[in-house]
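PROTOCOL LOG
Step 1. Enter all chains and additional molecules of the complex.
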Amino acid sequence: MAAAELTLVLSGHLRRPQSADLRPFWRGFIELQKKLPAGKPVRQIVAHSWNPELAPLAHAVYAPQAERHEHQACFYPEFMRQIEPPDRFEQGLDRLTSTWKNVSIQSVLGNARSRARAVELMNELPSPQGQVLITRWDLGQTGGAQVNQLVADATLPEDYLYLSYFSEVDEGYADMWVLAPWADARRFGRFDAFVLDSLAGRNRYLELFSGGGWPRARVKTRFEAWWSHPVGQRIHALTSKFVQGAQNRARGDALPQRVVCRLIGPVQRFLSQPPVTAENSCVPGFEAQSPVFPAFQALNIHALLKFFILSEGLRDRVRFLTHEDFDLSAQSGQLINSTQVVLLVHEADDAAIARLLAESPLPLAAIYQMDAGNVRQYVSDRQGGWGVTALRAAGSAPRDFMACALDAELRREAGALPVLVMPTVERYLGCADWFYMNALAKYLAWSRTGYVGLVGPRAGKPHLDFPGLQLVRGGGAFSLRMAAGTAEGLRAFLDVADPDLNEVSDRADRMLLEFPVVVRDGGLF
Amino acid sequence: MPTGDGDLDRFERLVRERSPFTFVRFSDGEIEILRNRKLVIAGGVTEFRGKRFSNQFPEFDQKRFDPRRGQDVRGDLLASAIFWESGYFKGVPTRHNNALGDREFMLRLNGGFTPQMTFSDLFLNSNFLRSRASFFPFLVSSFEDLLVVGNWRCELKGYLSKGRLIQIPDDFFSAYQQTLDSVQAVLQNAPKSALILSSASSLSNVLGHRLRISRPDLTFLDIGTVLNDLMGLPLGTRAYHKLIDPRTLRERFAAWRYRLHREYQLQW
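Step 2. Run joint prediction.
Step 3. Record the structure below.
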């Protein structure tokens, strides 16, 4: 593997305990694809999860080179006799009302162990070099934007450890993602042992955090403490929104607009002041008064990550980034393990097909051109070439062409691949979000969902298995002009469809049949 | 807390102690490149932070960065901004520039504040006259060998005339790699413990970083436009140039007004 390539290390829960919702997993996949640098392809993936029942899903979506999915054991016997006093992490904690009420030794250790086991899987990779992104399945889905937004810039030097920066960085380092050189990433293979040692008092973690004074940290002023409180943050967000709105309205050279801008300026400067932290800012004499945190707050994966990095001597190579540091929109995004799809196009001439073959971001396994009075099948030879076969449809109506194409596809691949039905090539190539589309194609292949509408007429009930899908009744939720699904699922509708494929949609609308449909602002295609 | 006087004193002390050091400056143009935002200063027009306005910068001050094509420059600038070493000083925008966000951004790239972080305006604004009157004459007189990197139009004068000019073209961004390679090759063979003064826009940051690694015996300072008159280039292109020898009543008034401006006094 060349140095300018990336290894992805995924860990944690594919689906949260006690939840049936798979959307965080899919959203994490879409988010990751969007934020990865376009100029640094992911060449190796290792994955660990606490969801063995979802191992086929993880494999289908990411295709890791090394993976392990296992039930999370109860760690109680491992740490019960090691925590002294036994109620150390309960002292001062109100389990009913505190924001720490859901934190437990089991969850902290589970997080650390999954990460460590994923990193250990790096040993099984063929190319031990390059930059490594250590992250979680639910990237971008929990916590604030400050900590959960991946900042991966292909132009940054690879010799450093990049972490996200936020106002609480003195207390601990955000663990949603870590971008590190290979050798530094490997050190996380003992992260779980370090966490257990820290919680059991076998190093100075507890002593410094809750007693002697936490390193590289400063005591916040009363105002800062209030400002970083959830209530203060809410007020900050609302005020910022108001000021931004006023500023947008006051754009122009007229006197009233200039006066408003002049008045708003100082408020905006105040609101956009960066946080002052001992980790980053110039704070003279902060060492003289190091903060001490309550004992229960030591059960804290951010603080444990910070102490790990300090203990491993990695701090000198740490560089902090925020999602606002770089304008990377033009250089971000890559498809992970892009899925082959089968495309049926109702109207496409030869020029359109040539454009499709050249420009499709998703790999195409087969194309069915349903125009000019017949059906033509294009099948990839997997070496860059295409075999073209003219197929004979039973009639000349759109229904007959579509049935002919789907029958041919069922004979060719037995319906293993997701199928997209598009009115034109232009419409397909105009997809607004290929990262979402790649995820949707994977979802279709994995779930074997027979039909998904691609034009969302209106909102329905949220679908718990995939983000952006809604269960919708009527209003054009069903269409065979533009749809996705499996070859079998789509083919089944053709047996009851009219030749022009219009009446069957009207009937579905009038019966208020419920279909999963992609509903998003601006549409997907 | 860094102060303008204190940091200039420190540089003088390093010169007296014969400890070679490097000073590179990240002003708003470099920050825009680091942040990967389009930057144009050319043809009397400035495109900056998505806005367009006119300017009166001379031709040799031209600068263009397009994120779609300039990742080589940006990569080198990032490496220069991220690199830390005890003798490698970085000047960054600060409070008096109304740039707290940029200051903290540069500190993040440095891994947090260290004593090597100072003002990008260290030789400018309230330090401008002291730099010209005492710091640079003292600095240049303390070294036997002097090399000056500057625009091809430059002609070294006064106490700089003992130095050797290494020329760079206008708008070197369009021939970045070639310019960098040729200038670096010359500097790589500079006499031992020489002084290098560089007035080469963002190229200074890259040269300063690379020479710090390959030739730590050299003392390298990015001088910006502080000594323009001694390089045969026009003065009057920056606000702080008003402070030099104001003669007419109008010039004195302009200098007085500039001293009262909130950006005049260096503040961390």
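Step 4. Note key features.
Chain A has a mean pLDDT of 93.
The interface with chain B takes residues 39, 153-157, 160, 165, 216, 269, 272-274, 279-284, 315-322, 325-328, 330-331 of chain A (CB under 8 Å).
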